[in-house]
Automatic annotation (TrEMBL):
<dbReference type="GO" id="GO:0016810">
    <property type="term" value="F:hydrolase activity, acting on carbon-nitrogen (but not peptide) bonds"/>
</dbReference>
<dbReference type="InterPro" id="IPR032466">
    <property type="entry name" value="Metal_Hydrolase"/>
</dbReference>
<dbReference type="InterPro" id="IPR011059">
    <property type="entry name" value="Metal-dep_hydrolase_composite"/>
</dbReference>
<feature type="domain" description="Amidohydrolase 3">
    <location>
        <begin position="48"/>
        <end position="532"/>
    </location>
</feature>
<dbReference type="Pfam" id="PF07969">
    <property type="entry name" value="Amidohydro_3"/>
</dbReference>
<dbReference type="InterPro" id="IPR033932">
    <property type="entry name" value="YtcJ-like"/>
</dbReference>
<keyword id="KW-0378">Hydrolase</keyword>
<dbReference type="InterPro" id="IPR013108">
    <property type="entry name" value="Amidohydro_3"/>
</dbReference>
<protein>
    <submittedName>
        <fullName>Putative TIM-barrel fold metal-dependent hydrolase</fullName>
    </submittedName>
</protein>
Amino acid sequence: MLDLLLRDVHALTMTERRPVAHAVGVFDGRIVGLDEQVADLPARRVVSGGGAVLTPGFADAHNHMVWYGLSLAELDLSACTSLEQVYDLVARRAAALPSDGWVIGSGYDDFVLGGHPSRAALDNSGGGRAVWLKHRSAHMCVVSSAILAETGVLDGTATVPEAGVVGRDESGEPTGLLAEQAQQLVDGLVKPYPVEELAAAVARAARRYVAEGLTHVTEAGVGGGWIGHSPAEVSAYQLARQRGELSLRVELMPASEVLHPLPGDTVGLDLGLRPGFGDDLLRIGPMKIFTDGALSSRTAAVTEPFIGHGGLGVLGDDPEVLRSRMLAAHRSGWRIAAHAIGDRAIDLTLDTLEEAQRALPRPGVRHRIEHAGMVRPDQLPRMARLGVVPVPQARFLHEIGDTMAESVGPQRVPWLYRHRSFLEAGLRVPGSSDRPCVGTGAPLSGMRSMVERRTKAGIELGAQERVGAKEALRAYTTHAAYASHQEHRRGKLARGTLADLVLLAEDPTTVASSKLADIEVLATFVAGELVHGTLPGL
């Protein structure tokens, strides 16, 4: 007997053999058949989809789940269009806090505001309290004098990490701006977060994610570095799962900083845990390493200077340190997920991966380049030869495309956040958001940007990189599964695959692109269980 029979649906299976189906049978968390294979079988629950569109569950190949969950409890600055609005929100929050309370906000955009919030204004609006406002790119933040004093920046005793930038005015005084690794100065004051707080953040994020049709996400950096929140971060996910609050599947990328030497000239986690450890709900994925910054903050490592800035960005560490970490990870059986946005950082990553494969061939390993934000034409065949998986975020084009275009100039705009070129080179492109960085992480919004490639100002960036709606859907289903070596387990509706499903009010492959992001998610299933929505019979 089936556990669930979904009838009267227009199912986009993402398979060539049977691209459309109208009935799906589920047993023990997996799909056991389609249409005539299951139509006459008895089932404990029979649900009619009323003709709605069914697709495989969406997957986000690069997000920051804990960070997003924490941000839901912080001041949301993403809608601010002036510095005065920012200061007003800070003042309101400060008025409700004790004198030693912290005002924490996230999502401000200096391009929209006309500049970064000033330290003096934050001191005033925060009433002298600690104020910490995070840039939407996550590669910068601004803080008040109280925090600068506590970190040692004001008296000059702070040790700024390699590749960290402390903003200063013409007189040399700190402005309150901290970029890249310099943000660790603030982290040192607040981390590690309590596991209970992190588990609550996971639960908050999970509720939002399943409401958007997400059934799998990859958490891009836990446990260490400026991207992690606690050495015990994995236990927060375990606690959320134990409480029944982890309602979707999660793959965790340990930050490179938490890998350490193990016997046998290898590096890894304690007990020798490696990628793949865990189960279908919670498992360890690749090692995450930062090789550079971001385009919006002009800290991505590029080969030609940024326009109107003159700089070449920064690498995430000394090149030899980055190289040795990646080589050791490859040698130790890890997949590598290298954050590389600028073309100079991508050169470094490709050179290192090529060296690693020469020394120890690992065919089909699928190392990843996270973001792959500005890829030169000559780098495309190199990526294809190495079989890497590029993980760009198409939604960046809408949210910060105008800023990026201004930074790199018209000659390099066609290289930004490619998609079609990757496909034509033989690479698969998973859908991802980098949430909470930059903007919305909803998969349907990401699909719209893959199809349109338009900025907020309506400017089309790299029209030759557009893809059709079917390919956009494939990015968030089959290609996202491929990026995790799970294409045979999820990302399509076929016998034996996980019963992770999304029921939509309209067909994302035929609706006008302008309406893609507005499609209603009627229901989300993980392992055949309803985790979002309401349907008769469930």
